[in-house]
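can u do me a favor
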C-alpha cells in the first residue's frame, strides 16, 4: 500500500522546485549578462582608444586626411587583429575584382602576364576567344606601353592596372615582337578564365589539370571529361597541384559528377551546429582515377582529393597537401566593401578533418622544386609524379581488363560444358540403333 503525502509536504516540494528553477535561471542570466558586460566594456575601450588616436592625429598631423583611405585601413587593421589567418578585407574596388575572379570571369583583354627582367609586361598566356586573341597578341609578346604609360620596373603596377578597365572601353597597347613595336587598340570585355586543361596520354588516359575552383570551372570540367571519355579515355588523372582552392559550389558540382550517391561535404559552425552542405546523386563515373597533390594543394582542392579517396574512387600521388579544412564566407558592408571571415570547419565524406595536417598521398613521390614551379610545361616523361599516377591507373585498367576477360572466359566455358552434358544425356536416353 502506497504512503500518503501530506498537502503541506507537497506544497513544500513545489516551492523547493520553484526556488531551484529561479536560482538556475538567475545564475544563467547573470552569466549571460556578465559576458555581455565584458564585451561591452571591451568595445567601449576599443572605441575610446580609436577616438583618442583620431583626435591626436587630426590635431597634430600636418597633411590632409583621406577619409575613405583612412576608413579602409581601419577596417583592414581590425580584420588583421582578429588573428584569423584566412580573413581578408576588400575595399569596394578590390571586392568587385574578387567577385569577378570567383565567377571565373574578368573584365579585361584576356591575358596572363608577369614582370619581365627588362621591366616590360611579358604575356604568358592568351585566353581563347579573348580580345587579346582576336587582336593577335601571343605568348612571349612584350607590352612596352599602355596608353600613355611607358612600361618599366617603376611603372609596371600602374601599367597593369591601366590594362584593366570598364567593359566596352578601349586601351592602346604598344606590343614588341621580334624587336618590332606595334600599336594595337584593344576593347575590354568580360573574359572567361580557363581553369581546366586536359589531354589524352598514351591514347587512353585522360590528364586533367585544374588550376582553381571558380564558378565557371564545373562547366569546363564536365565538358572536357565527357569529351575525353567519348575520345576513348579508360582512366582519369586529376592534377590539383598548386591549386589553392576556390568555391564550394564548383568543387561540389564536380564531385557530384564523379561520385555515387552520398554526402560530399559538411560543416560545423561557431554555434556547434553541423549541417550537410552538398550531396551527390546516384550517377557516377566508373573508371580508374588518380589525383596529383603537393604542399600547395589546399582548401577546395583538398576536399576534391579526400572525397575521391573516401569513396575509394581514386588513389592520390605526390606529396602531403597544405591542410586547410576551414570555410570562409564573404560578408558585404554597406559601402560596397566586404570582409572574408572563417566561419566554420568543413569535413569530407568520412567526417575526418584534415585541417592543420593535410592529406598524405597513397603514393609519395618527391619532385625537384624547379620542376614543381613549372608543372604546366612537364609531361609524363619529365614529371615523376605524373609518371607514377599513370602507372597506377594503367595497372588498374589492366586489372579490370583481365578480370573482365576471365569472367567472359568462365562464362563461355560454363556454357560449353552445359551443351556437352545435355548432348550426352540425350544420347543415353535415346534408343539404340
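np, heres the sequence
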Amino acid at each position: 500500500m502506497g504512503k500518503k503525502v501530506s498537502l503541506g509536504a507537497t506544497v513544500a516540494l513545489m516551492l523547493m522546485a520553484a526556488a531551484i528553477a529561479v536560482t538556475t535561471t538567475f545564475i544563467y542570466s547573470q552569466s549571460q549578462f556578465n559576458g555581455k558586460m565584458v564585451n561591452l566594456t571591451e568595445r567601449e575601450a576599443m572605441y575610446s582608444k580609436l577616438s583618442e588616436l583620431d583626435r591626436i592625429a587630426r590635431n597634430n598631423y600636418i597633411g590632409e586626411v583621406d577619409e575613405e583611405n583612412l576608413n579602409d585601413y581601419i577596417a583592414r587593421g581590425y580584420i588583421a587583429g582578429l588573428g584569423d589567418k584566412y580573413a581578408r578585407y576588400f575595399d569596394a574596388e578590390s571586392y568587385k575584382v574578387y567577385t569577378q575572379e570567383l565567377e571565373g570571369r574578368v573584365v579585361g583583354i584576356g591575358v596572363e602576364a608577369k614582370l619581365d627582367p627588362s621591366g616590360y609586361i611579358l604575356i604568358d598566356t592568351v585566353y581563347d576567344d579573348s580580345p587579346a586573341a582576336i587582336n593577335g597578341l601571343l605568348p612571349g609578346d612584350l607590352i612596352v606601353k599602355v596608353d600613355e604609360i611607358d612600361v618599366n620596373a617603376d611603372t609596371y603596377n600602374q601599367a597593369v592596372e591601366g590594362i584593366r578597365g570598364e567593359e566596352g572601353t578601349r586601351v592602346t597597347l604598344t606590343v614588341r615582337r621580334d624587336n618590332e613595336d606595334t600599336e594595337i587598340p584593344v576593347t575590354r570585355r568580360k573574359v572567361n578564365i580557363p581553369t581546366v586543361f586536359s589531354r589524352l596520354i598514351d591514347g587512353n588516359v585522360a590528364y586533367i589539370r585544374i588550376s582553381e575552383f571558380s564558378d565557371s570551372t564545373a562547366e569546363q570540367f564536365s565538358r572536357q571529361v565527357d569529351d575525353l571519355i567519348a575520345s576513348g579515355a579508360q582512366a582519369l588523372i586529376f592534377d590539383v597541384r598548386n591549386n589553392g582552392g576556390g568555391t564550394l559550389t564548383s568543387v561540389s558540382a564536380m564531385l557530384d559528377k564523379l561520385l555515387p550517391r552520398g554526402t560530399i561535404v559538411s560543416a560545423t559552425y561557431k554555434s556547434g551546429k553541423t549541417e550537410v552542405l552538398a550531396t551527390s546523386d546516384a550517377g557516377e563515373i566508373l573508371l580508374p582515377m588518380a589525383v596529383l597533390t603537393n604542399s600547395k594543394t589546399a582548401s577546395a582542392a583538398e576536399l576534391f582529393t579526400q572525397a575521391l579517396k573516401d569513396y575509394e574512387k581514386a588513389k592520390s600521388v605526390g606529396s602531403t597537401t597544405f591542410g586547410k579544412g576551414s570555410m570562409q564566407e564573404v560578408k558585404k558592408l554597406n559601402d560596397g566593401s566586404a570582409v572574408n571571415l572563417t566561419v566554420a570547419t568543413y569535413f569530407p565524406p568520412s567526417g575526418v578533418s584534415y585541417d592543420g595536417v593535410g592529406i598524405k598521398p597513397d603514393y609519395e613521390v618527391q619532385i625537384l622544386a624547379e620542376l614543381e614551379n613549372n608543372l604546366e610545361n612537364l609531361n609524363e616523361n619529365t614529371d615523376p609524379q605524373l609518371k607514377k599516377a599513370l602507372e597506377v591507373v594503367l595497372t588498374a585498367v589492366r586489372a579490370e581488363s583481365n578480370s573482365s576477360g576471365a569472367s567472359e572466359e568462365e562464362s563461355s566455358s560454363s556454357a560449353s560444358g552445359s551443351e556437352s552434358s545435355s548432348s550426352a544425356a540425350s544420347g543415353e536416353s535415346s534408343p539404340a540403333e
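The CA atoms of residues 121 and 143 lie 5 Å apart. hope that helps!!
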